């Protein structure tokens, strides 16, 4: 195919103010010619190689055309074909509709910020002067799904000093109806002090039985020991954890417990109740906390028996953090770390409302995790000091790993 790109005219067009890229951009015809010339070279090489291997009957057989989107604009590409149908172009593959990864990378970047498909389309049109349908954008974002599956199955470390487990809920379409499903999130801190989302799991409802399957998955992926697990007050949760990791210390989230208690307290008593309750969870020692809990019971049990009973029934797992130095207490007494991730998830998904399937939700949350990982490149503050204390407290379990 002979060159028809007129360089002198291109320069004239630029001087007249014509755009370099985009629809009818000056560079678009040149990119078209370069790609088509490369395809011509590919098919000539293919037919020559087949002739050398004894397939001398194969020959060229005209062209197929398709619309190709590039950073310089959209154009019709003529792709040569062969009679035997064995030619597989490499520079622009058979079903490829985008010339480079630049546009796809931009789409994924915007998608990872939580933008709707319509907003993404507007941005792409402003930058590249090309229009993309929601279906095209969806097919591009679907390329994340294999990465999500690979990420969900990746091997994990043998020991995690801390993990946090909690769930967030979304509406997902299933069998023609939108159902609320629980997204189980697990975050761990490794021995280098780096936070990482270990997994995302989807179930109909949040319950200890499904959490058991989550924990078994962590074990199958290589986790042998967890020192401390922080969870909400879901019934049966500590037992589920200890059935898979029997040595793990389970700490119920104090913040969750406070919120649940206040559901039973009238507005006029809340200020005084919280003042008395702070003496319990902010106590210096477990003994001081238990004395404050007795005082709380004496003052409020007749009026708010359910709230007091909840603290007493869960006290064994609520009070575990009193065993540890202040640095470790701050890390384990609440699941705020996981709640901060869930807040990021909500920002990403606020334009969606509901999701047509599980994959559409998972790929967006995965993008949120990718964003979080960029912020988690450094260890937890004062990690060396925390690890030193853990090494003393859990010497028998960390000695081999830390080589002490």
**Strands ordered across the widest β-sheet:** 5-4-3-6-7
By oligomeric state, this entry counts as: single chain
The N- to C-terminal Cα distance equals: 71 Å
Mean pLDDT across residues:
86
* Structural class assignment: alpha/beta
Strand content: 15-25%
The low-confidence parts are none
Our count of helices gives 18
CATH architecture of the largest domain: 2-Layer Sandwich
Do you know the CATH topology of the largest domain? Nucleotidyltransferase, domain 5
Morphology = elongated
Question: Which helices and strands, and how do they pair?
Answer:
Layout: H1 7-15, H2 28-52, E1 60-70, E2 73-82, H3 101-111, H4 117-128, H5 134-141, H6 145-152, E3 159-174, E4 177-189, E5 195-203, H7 208-220, E6 225-231, H8 237-244, E7 249-252, H9 254-262, H10 267-281, H11 286-300, H12 305-313, H13 315-318, H14 326-332, H15 336-349, H16 358-375, H17 383-393, H18 395-402
Parallel strand pairs: 3-6, 6-7
Antiparallel strand pairs: 1-2, 3-4, 4-5
């Amino acid at each position: 195919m002979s060159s028809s790109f007129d360089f002198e005219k291109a320069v004239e067009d630029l001087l007249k103010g014509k755009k370099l890229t985009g629809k009818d951009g000056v560079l678009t015809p040149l990119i078209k010619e370069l790609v088509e010339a490369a395809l011509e070279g590919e098919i000539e090489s293919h037919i020559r190689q087949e002739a050398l291997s004894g397939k001398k009957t194969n020959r060229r057989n005209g062209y197929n055309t398709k619309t190709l989107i590039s950073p310089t604009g959209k154009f019709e590409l003529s792709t040569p074909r062969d009679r035997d149908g064995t030619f597989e172009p490499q520079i622009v593959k058979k079903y490829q509709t985008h010339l480079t990864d630049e546009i796809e990378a931009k789409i994924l970047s915007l998608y990872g910020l939580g933008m709707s498909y319509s907003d993404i389309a507007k941005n792409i049109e402003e930058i590249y002067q090309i229009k993309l349908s929601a279906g095209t954008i969806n097919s591009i974002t679907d390329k994340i799904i294999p990465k999500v599956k690979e990420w969900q199955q990746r091997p994990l470390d043998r020991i995690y000093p801390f993990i946090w487990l909690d769930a967030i809920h979304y509406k997902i379409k299933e069998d023609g109806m939108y159902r609320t499903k629980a997204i189980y999130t697990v975050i761990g801190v490794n021995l280098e002090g780096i936070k990482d989302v270990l997994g995302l799991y989807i179930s109909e409802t949040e319950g200890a039985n499904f959490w058991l399957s989550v924990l078994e998955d962590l074990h199958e992926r290589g986790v042998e020991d967890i020192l401390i697990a922080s969870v909400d007050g879901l019934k049966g949760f500590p037992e589920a954890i200890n059935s898979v990791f029997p040595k793990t210390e389970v700490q119920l989230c104090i913040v969750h417990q406070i919120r649940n208690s206040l559901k039973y307290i009238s507005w006029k008593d809340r200020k005084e109740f919280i003042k008395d309750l702070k003496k319990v969870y902010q106590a210096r020692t477990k003994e001081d906390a238990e004395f404050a809990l007795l005082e709380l019971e004496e003052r409020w049990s007749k009026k708010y028996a359910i709230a007091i009973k909840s603290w007493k029934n869960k006290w064994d797992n609520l009070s575990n953090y009193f065993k540890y130095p202040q640095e470790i207490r701050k890390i384990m007494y609440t699941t705020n770390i996981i709640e901060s991730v869930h807040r990021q998830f909500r920002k990403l998904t606020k334009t969606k409302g509901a999701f047509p399937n599980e994959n559409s939700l998972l790929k967006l949350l995965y993008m949120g995790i990718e964003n979080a990982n960029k912020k988690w490149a450094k260890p937890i503050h004062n990690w060396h000091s925390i690890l030193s204390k853990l090494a003393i407290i859990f010497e028998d379990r960390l000695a081999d790993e830390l080589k002490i």
